[in-house]
Structure to design on (375 residues):
């Protein structure tokens, strides 16, 4: 069976984790955490990057730093993982779901402004499959209405929009280093600050509400509890695991891109023949080969397709059930406008196996199995 996902492993993870143990520094913000911070700050050009315990934690920090209060509204797509919504619901926000574009499955920037009310505080965008939302237009809307933009870039580490790294365009960026992502620490994430305006507040929030980071920099003679926070910093053991992959950043990206390009070369002619649909990459967007998906005719065909692939030794999966139709989505939010594409397109989408070190033989088997279904 060809797995849908195998967590990335570069070879030095265990070496670095042993080194972290020998250093006797396995709690948060140890030597490997600092290496990861420095690398990600250089790679993104961000003013500051902070590893977190998960992508969800990064989103929770962004919600706290956005000063969300009960009754505030947050605009977001319904086609996303529940963490995007949970982070704001935890602060008492009401969710306002907006339809997606059928070509990218990203929030439709043309429908955001109509969803804004006097309670709107944040636009939370999700860069699905590592392909950027239309950030110029979204940032212009946010500026016009004095709104905060949070980028859920969980799937977009290394992706860019018109030369700018995703996660650095809005007010806050959030990465995930879950085992299903391009680079992994098992469970983990990062908060990206494009400017230093909220560095002190972010550090306090991440350090259980204390000014401990300022104490270690010698800015205060003792640290104390100063505001709300939680323990959002991961163990240095996790950071050691991640560091082994960040050292191979380009190698991992290029390996995944080779699979993405092979799939695209194989399936684009089938798309042109009207058999299926393949991903669309808008001009100015450079993606990171996070996933390759196909769209089938409808839900019954997708169900038959996934079953056929499994029977022939290939694991493929569909993605999110739209949040607005879930029990929690009905409880905590509402859909603004018409659900023209979110549900319909989500029922057609299926993800193919794509991971670091997927062999050429297995890649070809996936391609041949897909072709045989349509034959």
């Amino acid at each position: 069976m060809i797995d849908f996902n195998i967590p990335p492993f570069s070879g030095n993870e265990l070496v670095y984790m042993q080194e972290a143990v020998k250093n006797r520094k396995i709690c948060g913000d140890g030597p490997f955490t600092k290496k990861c911070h420095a690398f990600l700050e250089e790679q993104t050009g961000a003013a500051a990057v902070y590893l977190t315990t998960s992508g969800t934690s990064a989103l929770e920090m962004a919600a706290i730093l956005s000063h969300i209060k009960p009754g505030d509204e947050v605009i977001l797509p319904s086609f996303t993982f529940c963490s995007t919504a949970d982070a704001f619901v935890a602060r008492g926000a009401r969710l306002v779901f907006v339809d997606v574009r059928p070509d990218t499955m990203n929030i439709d920037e043309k429908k955001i402004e109509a969803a804004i009310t006097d309670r709107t505080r944040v636009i939370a965008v999700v860069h699905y499959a590592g392909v950027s939302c239309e950030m110029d237009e979204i940032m212009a809307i946010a500026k016009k209405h004095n709104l905060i933009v949070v980028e859920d870039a969980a799937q977009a580490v290394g992706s860019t929009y018109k030369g700018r790294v995703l996660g650095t365009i809005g007010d806050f960026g959030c990465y995930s280093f879950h085992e299903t992502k391009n680079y992994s620490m098992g469970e983990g994430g990062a908060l990206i600050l494009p400017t230093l305006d909220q560095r002190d507040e972010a550090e306090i929030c991440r350090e259980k509400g204390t000014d401990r980071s300022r104490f270690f920099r010698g800015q205060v003679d003792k640290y104390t509890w100063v505001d709300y926070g939680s323990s959002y910093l991961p163990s240095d053991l996790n950071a050691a695991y991640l560091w082994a992959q960040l050292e191979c950043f380009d190698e991992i990206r290029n390996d995944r891109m080779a699979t993405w390009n092979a799939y695209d070369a194989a399936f684009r002619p089938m798309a042109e023949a009207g058999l299926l649909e393949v991903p669309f990459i808008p001009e100015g967007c450079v993606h990171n080969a996070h996933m390759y998906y196909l769209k089938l005719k409808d839900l019954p065909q997708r169900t038959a397709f996934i079953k056929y692939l499994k029977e022939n030794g290939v694991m493929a999966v569909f993605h999110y059930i739209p949040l607005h139709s879930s029990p929690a989505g009905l409880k905590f939010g509402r859909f603004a406008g018409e659900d023209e594409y979110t549900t319909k397109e989500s029922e057609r989408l299926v993800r193919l196996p794509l991971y670091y070190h997927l062999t050429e033989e297995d890649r070809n088997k996936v391609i041949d199995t897909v072709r045989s279904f349509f034959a």
Remarks:
- The two ends are 21 Å apart (CA to CA).
- The domain at 13-246 is CATH 3.40.640.10 (Aspartate Aminotransferase; domain 2).
